[in-house]
Amino acid sequence: MDESSFILGVDLDGVVGDFYGAMRRIASEWLNKPIEQLTPEVSFELNEWGIAEYGGYEKLHRFAVTQRNLFRDMQPLQDAPAVLRKLSMHGIRIRIITHRLYLKYVHKTSITQTVDWLDSWDIPYWDICFMKDKGAVGAHVYIDDSPVNVVQLRKHGCRTIVFTNSTNRRLPGPRADSWHEVECLVLNAKEEWTTGTLDLFGASDYNLL
Ligand SMILES: [Mg+2]
User: Fold this and answer.
1) Any catalytic annotation for residue 13?
2) Could you confirm whether 11 is annotated as catalytic?
3) pLDDT at site 116
4) What CATH homologous superfamily does 7-18+75-207 map to?
5) Which of the four pLDDT bands, split at 50, 70 and 90, describes residue 121?
6) Among 2, 13, 122, 177, which one carries the catalytic annotation?
7) Cα of 9 to ligand 1 centre, how many Å?
8) In angstroms, how far is the first alpha carbon of the chain from the final one?
């Protein structure tokens, strides 16, 4: 496995880890509201949970990471670790790309929890990049759930699979509703990259936004 391998750029929150499920449980505690009152159909900023009057997202995020070990204790999304292990066995280089260094003074905790979590679920990776500008990292195919990230990546010509959740349903494909769909799309893309004969993503997909 080296730099000449096919590289898959993988976002963590909302793609490999059940970020919104974990945040919903923590927010229920932080807001002192029954979890049933917090809709799982959230948008990216979680405004549906009424967090603004309690201090807003940054305060909830800091509490979740530093007091509830968000990045150490969240559950993975179904099949994500196992499919990543399979993709790695196909010679695909897994490059984790995450914007978890979101708040000052939480960096050490965020990085430590993230690496511990990846190990504890046996998620293979060769590189890990804590970056906001994901397109600067370099990957043959990306998978992300954030509408802003997907639009930005596609704007810069990066082939990007949307991983479906409530924050991104309006985005055009290619998209995956499950990790088995990710597996198929990524293996097809690798085949396309290897042979240089197909364009399964379709160049027009990038001009829809
Ligand atoms: Mg994400």
Assistant:
1) yes
2) yes
3) 98
4) HAD superfamily/HAD-like (3.40.50.1000)
5) very high
6) 13
7) 12
8) 35
pLDDT value at residue 50: 95
Single-letter residue type at 82: A
Residue 119 has pLDDT above 80, yes or no: yes
Output the CA 100–ligand 1 centroid distance in Å: 9
Which tokens belong to 86?
């399979």
Dist CA 8 CA 134 (whole Å): 12
For ligand 1, the distance from its centroid to the CA atom of residue 145, given in whole angstroms, is: 5
User: Could you tell me the distance, in angstroms and rounded to a whole number, from the CA of residue 14 to the centre of ligand 1?
Assistant: 5
> pLDDT-derived band of residue 2, with 50, 70 and 90 as boundaries?
low
* Domains of the chain by residue range: 7-18+75-207, 19-73
Per-residue DSSP letter, 10: E
Q: Is the previous residue joined to 174 through a cis bond, with omega within 30 degrees of 0?
A: yes
